[in-house]
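ARCHIVE CARD
SHELF: 3
SLOT: left
DATA:
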Amino acid sequence: MKGLIKRGITGFATEQNGVDPQDVKSFLSFIHAIVKGQVEWKDVDIVGKNYYWILVSTDQQQISFFLNAYFPLVAIRIESPKSEFGYLTAVELEELFPKLSQYNYQVLGKEDLEEEILRDEIEQLDEMEIKQAEYWKPRTIEEIVFNNWD
């Protein structure tokens, strides 16, 4: 997905290229607006990772919401007791959450997240981010947008 990878997205940018973190309260408001359920768990500590993770339980399922800590990029995943989970595809997102486009978040489908990261996209990153990418060797958009690089 062209144009998605920007300086600061990994959380490792130099100070002059750093980006302010996304607002967690706004993210929670977004979640409550699109799904009726109970927040079961929040992981909003960005030490060792570059995303927030909110788990919501509804009457029928558990849904994980991920937000890149520095850009308004979201992924949604259905959890299963059998540990068979998966990010939702663009079609599934549209069917389950038809009002997503009304909000200031870009929700990435499974297809976007699994897209191979290209060298020229890595080269758009900040010099510190490039060093981290050379070490961690991300292969997909997901591995840049939602990383656990420490």
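SLOT: right
DATA:
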Amino acid sequence: TGSQAGVITDSVHNKARIIDVTPGRIRTSIDEGNIAIVAGFQGVSQEGKNITTLGRGGSDTTAVALAAALDAEVCEIYTDVDGVFTADPRVVKKAKKIDWISFEDML
């Protein structure tokens, strides 16, 4: 959960904003050779420790915040579009769909 991952938010439910990320538990797990899987879109309020949910795009926001807190070199987000494009087609009008791509090239 976001709470277990150290995602600290304000107390605004359904539109919470991340205040801090304390990823000690995730770092320990990764250092032990494990793969950490974190549910995005949620955290825990700084006041009261209530579970909160982030607004639209909250899962992507969680991924980026955790990547930054862990000093990751890259944060790749694969999302719900019809295929793989050269850029985000919702942002870049001339983005081209890639007909075929290998798993290695995706990484």
